[in-house]
Amino acid sequence: MTSSVSPDFPSVDKERDPDAPKDTPVINEKTSSRSGASSTQEETEGGFAAWSTVVAAWIMQFCTSGYVNAFGVYQDFYTRGYLPSSSASTISWIGSTNNLLVFGGGLIFGRLFDAGYFRSMLVGGSILFIFCLFMISISQQDHWYQLFLAQGIGLGIAQGLLYLPSLAIIGHHFEKKRTLVMGIVASGAAVGGIIHPIMLNQLFEGRVGFHNGVRVSAAMNGMLLIIAIFISLQKGAGTRKEEPSSSSESERPKIKKWYQFFGEPAYCTAVIGNFLFFLGGYYPLFYLQLSGITHGVDKTLVFYSIAIMNAANLPGRLIPNHLASRLGVHNQMIVAASICGALAIAFIGMHNAAGMVVIAIIYGFASGAYVSLLGAMLAGLSPNLQEMGSRMGTCFACGGFATFIGPPIMGALLGTTNYKWLRPSLFSGCCVLVGVVFMIIARHFKIRDVERKRLEDLDREPVEKTPKSRRIV
């Protein structure tokens, strides 16, 4: 990857490399128009309020995205007997509807967060989350609509109320460490994706059974969310702030409507790329366990396949975030998505335990890297801190719609009895790889925008007073 300018986190101060060429792009990171915002960010960088909220956000990720990552267990259990009258495609509508509301609801949830309803969303989402799990536990066998209402719609809304705020709140507490901290928070989803599948498989297939197993899961998640409610602090998060009185009206940042974001080429192409990634990217997560069973892989190993994928997901969510300042957020996302697309196509050749484990590990790491860096990329595309929730929500809404239609399409391509793995594998891989093309285009627009901003800053201030830094996108 060639290095270039990256504006993802413009508040980090670095000196120009003395060996760098004179024409190396630089960014004025302390312009007068952002002085008020910079001082506010310095005040909220770290501290007890910030780190206790990080723990709460980690728990929220564990209970939301971590549980979404365990849907493959439900998909397999429902397909093999609990919903005998429903096809794999019909059953996948439960999980895809859940995904639609978790991510797609961000269009509404992001606005609520920006309006200052973080704590209300946390409490309300937690209550609804536990209620819906208990509704799943009293569902009747072969009654698809009951699971669709409780797990697809109800649980999706609850998880959506928790998911986006758990990421957006980090941007209000951290600036210099934002990428790393977002990776730490996102690791909660990976840990949840390890624990939830193992626990659910053991409960469903053991003496506890499906109904009591879901109740055990509800009790565990309920206790964790109560802890999150008590330790999350709202200092500097989810509240609208007035600009310093010394700023003139013309200098105050103008907050855009969600549809106006698409007038920015970098943001628009990034959202399209993310849409295509989510359209095909959930294929291994939904169908890995079913594929292993139909290909005769040992049942015990198959039940751990999703947990193995999410175990690899954990370092994938931490290591790339740590290396973001060196390798660039956009660069790593492009590589990670390319690997995911290639492995989705390689899914065609998975016929034994070794192939299943290899795909689970590599895909888990790459998809974890992509998802954990997504929040940091969107934060870098948010010039106004008060738009961060809305920008994330809009992107997640588009991605949510992709996860809504993607799994059922792949389920239909797979078939009902004689599974044809070639068709959904090609569909998944092609969607993701076309998404990579749009991510590369988004990176190009981002570099162009930063260079334009740099020249504008140089025109406003003397060159000798401009702090300089080198960036990698």
Brief sketch in words of this structure:
By secondary structure, this protein is an all-alpha fold. Helix content is 71%, strand content 0%.
Protein described:
This protein is mainly α. The chain has a single domain (about 30-235, about 260-465), classed as Up-down Bundle (Growth Hormone, Chain: A), CATH 1.20.1250.20. Helices cover about 70% and strands about 0% of the residues. It has helices at about 35-45, 50-65, 65-70, 70-80, 90-105, 105-115, 120-135, 145-175, 180-205, 210-230, 265-280, 285-295, 300-305, 305-320, 325, 330-345, 355-380, 390-415, 420-460. Its main location: membrane. This is MFS general substrate transporter. It is found in: Membrane. It is a multi-pass membrane protein.
Tell me the number of strands: 0
Q: Biggest β-sheet, characterized?
A: none
Distance between the termini: 10 Å
Sheet-strand content, in percent, reads: under 5%
CATH names the topology as Growth Hormone, Chain: A
| Residue runs with pLDDT of under 50 for 5 or more positions | 1-43, 236-250
InterPro entries: MFS, MFS_dom, MFS_trans_sf, Proton-linked_MCT
Organism: Dendrothele bispora (strain CBS 962.96)
Protein name: MFS general substrate transporter
GO molecular function: transmembrane transporter activity
